[in-house]
Structure formats: C-alpha cells, structure tokens
Design brief:
The chain is mostly helical and about 140 residues long. It has a single domain, classed as Up-down Bundle (Four Helix Bundle (Hemerythrin (Met), subunit A)), CATH 1.20.120.1870. It has seven helices and two strands; from the N terminus they run αααααβααβ. Strands 1-2 form a two-stranded antiparallel ribbon. The termini are far apart.
C-alpha cells in the first residue's frame, strides 16, 4: 500500500508539473529544451546521456503529423536509448500523460505506468507497438 501511494503521488506531481509546461507550448510539437525541462521538472538535472538519439527522434517528429506517433517516437527514444542519465521512465511517463491531457483525453494512470514499464522491460523498439500500449491506457 505504501509503495502504491508513493507511486500515485509521484505520478500526480510529475504530471501536474509537466502538463503546465506542455500546455504553455501552444502545440504538441516538443523541442529538446522542453524534454530537458521535463526531466528537470521531475527532480533530475536534465543531464543528457544520449543526445544524438533525442536529436534524431525530435528531427523525425517534424515529418510526422500524428500526435500519437510523435509521442511514441519520443517515448521510444527516452526509454530505450536512455536519453538522460537519470529519470528516463519518469520523464517518458510525464510527457505521455501531459500530451494526453493536452489532447483532452482521459487515461488510466496505472495502465500508462505499466505501459512505460513494459516498453522498458521488454525492450519494445517498434513504434507501432508503443502506440498500441499508449492507446491501451486511454479511456474512451
């Protein structure tokens, strides 16, 4: 129970902070500065570990029109390529939750949390599979 309560609080704090950031952008197209700031908002230093992967993911976003594809591509980069020294799972979760909120979608926090863990543990590199996991967390 204590672990679950801590996780719920951590999810709420991260989400609220990053949502304010994403909401202030005026669009869902996220920049490197935004991703670094998201990592800092969750209590980390924003120190990049794999900057090239983040640059590649952000560059590829410019050619994609789907917000879900944007989010999935960025999630893959953050989680599997370990963009930051610390806080990759928390940063990915916060960005996904914030984008869903920005899109006006309700989601199941637990499913979303499990999606992030599943992507990481199973090393899911396929962006389409990541999209399905994120969609699975959306409440219709």
């Amino acid at each position: 129970m204590v672990v679950e309560a801590k996780r719920n609080l951590y999810i709420k704090v991260i989400h609220t902070s990053v949502y304010k950031m994403i909401g202030s952008l005026g669009s869902v197209l996220i920049t490197k500065k935004d991703v670094i700031r998201a990592n800092q908002e969750i209590g980390e230093e924003g120190t990049l570990h794999n900057e090239a992967s983040l640059d590649f993911a952000l560059h590829s976003l410019k050619q994609q029109k789907s917000w879900l594809l944007h989010t999935s591509t960025l999630t893959r980069s953050i989680l599997l390529d370990h963009v930051f020294q610390d806080g990759n799972k928390r940063t990915a979760y916060a960005l996904i939750a914030s984008v869903l909120e920005y899109q006006g979608l309700k989601y199941d926090k637990e499913r979303l949390y499990l999606a992030v863990l599943t992507i990481t543990k199973k090393n899911i590199t396929n962006v389409q599979k990541i999209m399905r996991l994120i969609k699975h967390g959306i409440l219709f």
